[in-house]
Specification:
It contains three helices and eight strands; from the N terminus they run αβββββααβββ. By secondary structure, the protein is α+β, with helices and mostly antiparallel strands. Strands 1, 2, 3, 4, 5, 6, 7 and 8 form an eight-stranded antiparallel beta sheet that branches. The structure holds a DNA duplex (13 and 13 nucleotides).
Length: about 200
DNA sequence: TCGTCGATCTACT
DNA sequence: GTAGATCGACGAG
């Protein structure tokens, strides 16, 4: 069943990030469904987080969707090449978001391989935020889009991980954020082959 | 207006 | 291991 909007309205983005592990993420593009369950996510805590695009409540055309009410997608372009999917959380005016860094694919594998131009299923097919977006056909057209729609949505299928199966470590690629770069805001499922590279 | 750098990935040496 | 792709936000001039 689809996850209701109330799930995204919580104000503790770090706790929600952890809770997202094991939730299923799907897209239906041109009538074909693809997706899988989330195995890696990072929290970005809005105004007080130097690593966030919305640090100090910085509003630009790009960050505007993060200030909206939770339950929508924030998709932006990084390095001029890669689209990144984020889940916007919290209430209106609070720019919190969760970067989806890796999923464990379960549905539409053929389509995912086609989008990624891979002949065989390798574990890096949906490892890393740019890879996830490409694999599921997500791009900036979905920016600001509801997560309860028929194109993009999350489901709870009762898959849960125990605390000892989940690692909490510093985020990737945010060295510019000073002391905030050290916060343990990256969560992943230990041992899952689809977790992105830096995975000890 | 220009130059720099970024929540990255791939291909090639 | 490192270069190249190449857009949006930012700060300097």
């Amino acid at each position: 069943m689809k996850i209701p909007q109330s799930f995204y309205l919580g104000t503790d983005v770090v706790a929600i990030s952890k809770a997202l592990l094991g939730k299923y993420l799907f897209t239906s593009i041109n009538g074909i469904i693809s997706g899988g369950y989330i195995v890696e996510a990072e929290a970005y805590n809005g105004a007080v987080d130097k690593a966030s695009h919305a640090y100090d409540n910085r509003r630009t055309p790009r960050t505007e969707v993060m200030f909206r009410e939770g339950g929508i997608a924030y998709v932006y372009l990084c390095y001029g090449i890669h689209e990144m999917l984020n889940i916007v959380t919290s209430t209106e005016g609070h720019a919190q978001a969760i970067l989806i860094r890796a999923i464990h694919p379960t549905d539409g594998i053929d389509l995912i391989m086609e989008r990624r131009k891979m002949e065989k299923l390798k574990s890096n097919i949906t490892a890393g935020p740019g890879s996830v977006a490409k694999a599921l056909g997500i791009d900036r057209r979905l920016n600001g889009h509801s997560l309860e729609s028929d194109v993009l949505w999350l489901e709870d299928r009762g898959l849960n991980f125990r605390d000892e199966q989940i690692a909490a470590v510093p985020r990737i690629g945010v060295d510019y954020a000073g002391e905030d770069a050290l916060l343990p805001y990256r969560f992943y499922v230990k041992g899952d082959p689809y977790v992105s590279k830096p995975n000890k």
